[in-house]
Amino acid sequence: MGNNNEAEHDNPLNDELQQRKLLERRLVLKYDLLLLPFLSFMYLFSSLDRSTLGNAVLDNFEEDVGITPDQFNTCITIFYAGFLLFQVPSNILLKRFTARRWLPLLMMFWGLIACLHATVHGYTHLMILRFLLGVFESGFFPGVIFFLTLFYKKDEMATRIALFWGSSVIAHSFAGVLAYAILRLRGAHGMTGWQWLFIVEGVPTVVVAIIAWFYLPASPETWSRLSPEEQILAVERLEDRKQHATLGDLDASNRNQAFKAFTDWKVWMWMVMFFSGSVANTSISNFLPLIIKGLGYEDKLSANLMSAPPYLSAVVVMVGTAHSSDRFQERTFHAIAGASICIVGYALQLILTDKKSLYASVFIAVTGIFVINPIVNAWLTSNIAPEMKRSVAAAMAVSANNSAGLLGANIYRRSDAPRYIRGHSISLGFLCVFIIMALIQRTLLLRENCIREKICKEMQEEEGGFNEPEDEETQQESLTRRTRIGDEALDFRYRL
């Protein structure tokens, strides 16, 4: 026994494998320390600039600009319209400009638009700026996800997407604290607090975009921060790196893959899940300060400040759940866990009446909301192939996610203050739909896996035995089965 252990220890191949694993861990750690935090920092400003309007409304924004509460809701809605319309063109331009150039350009433009919000003087002016903000922010998240696939393996993505998404949640928390401080500048240099808010949050966005232009690498093999040995390993560890596709790669050779995404029932199921799971997300992101104000925190500055703690809790829960999902390679019940936490929070909002309990229920709801999207995103992308089909399916899912903003921007009406029962009830209902759809999707995928296992077993038995010659129709069916590609291939197993 001892000799076997010594032989195993002295095996050069085993030593080389262990050394490679060590180098790979160091390489991924370098990505996690030098690349992912910077991209997350960029996305923090995206979420910060997007949510500023929700904080500004507590500083007499509507009165100063001359808009009604309903017009305010419409201005939030128009952001998602711009977001949806420009998403596909942005994916195409991503391929033309490359991610290292397109992402900073988008950030530069939305930062300038954010600054221009300080000059708003009417309803039409605000509508135009919100639409343009949606246009320039639309391509950033899918662009970053594509960019990350150049560096990380597929089974490393869910945790990284959650960490990246966490910056968005942190931004919402930071926005409340920042707004609390900046809105107190009202009157300084003849400007309102909300004008200062847009300027102070917009200018750093432009500065970070300029830094990103010079900092972001084109690819791991050309990144100067990696050693030559690390650059080679970065390419070798991603055997299918060149297969990652964007809509800019769409041509006659892969158009059929794109079409299959539109006709695949699984993609449409995930789209419904994304939509139903994002109604609560998009509404809370825009209206949490107003919701908290309705709980009895009448001081406008305090309402902004009290919106911060729930988001900090949400970051911890989201990242922890995503890490667990990656570790155990399980998606369904992790996503359902997040939705269930939300449901408890919203249900308590409908039942309870005292101020502290209501704030605690808001805390619970926000904590679970941001778990859903990273998990479902990883669930979808790991189950759709080949690459062009996956790219189109992901774009469809993101569109469904952002379409939820069109509804989420309109379920919290000022006429429902202070309890906002209608908004809470709608969010709760869609979360229930999400859980039902997730369970149905899991059941159908499991059933498909069992069917494929059975077919493969039958084919192996046929190949191993002496069967009667097949007729032409049977031969054609057998050939079709063997030539399936991507997630339609018989040896492809859906992850649950």
UniProtKB/TrEMBL annotation:
Primary location group: membrane
Protein localization: Membrane
An MF annotation (GO) of this entry: transmembrane transporter activity
Biased composition (Acidic residues): 461-475
Pfam families noted in UniProt: MFS_1
Major facilitator superfamily (MFS) profile domain span: 35-450
Residues in coiled coil: none
Region (Disordered): 461-480
Domain of life of the source: Eukaryota
GO CC, alphabetical: membrane
Keywords: Membrane, Transmembrane, Transmembrane helix, Transport
PANTHER family: PERMEASE-RELATED, TRANSPORTER, PUTATIVE (AFU_ORTHOLOGUE AFUA_6G08340)-RELATED
The protein's name in its UniProt record: Major facilitator superfamily domain-containing protein
Organism: Phascolomyces articulosus
